[in-house]
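Incident review: delayed structure delivery

Summary: a single-chain prediction request sat in the queue longer than the usual turnaround. Root cause was a stuck worker, restarted by the on-call engineer. No data loss occurred. The affected request and its eventual output are reproduced below so the record is complete for anyone auditing the incident later.

Affected input:
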Amino acid sequence: MGSAINMTISFTETVKDPPYMIDVFEDFLYVTFYKSHNVSMIHKFSNSNVKDRIMFKNLKYIGDIVVLHPSKQKIISE
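Output delivered after worker restart:
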């Protein structure tokens, strides 16, 4: 573990809309929220406001979030 640890965002136990799942890709955290059924994008280094970066709002169902990108996937040789 590195010595230069920075806290981007902290979700306390008293938060009204707790995060459900989180995935990381490049400089962003992608977070699904349990009660509001929103998907937000949070910059890892600037600690931007979660409400300013809502990607999808009031989805009917919320579940796991997975970012798919070629640079994030393992290459499987045949």
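Verification: The longest strand covers residues 19-25.
Action items: add queue-age alerting; document worker restart procedure.
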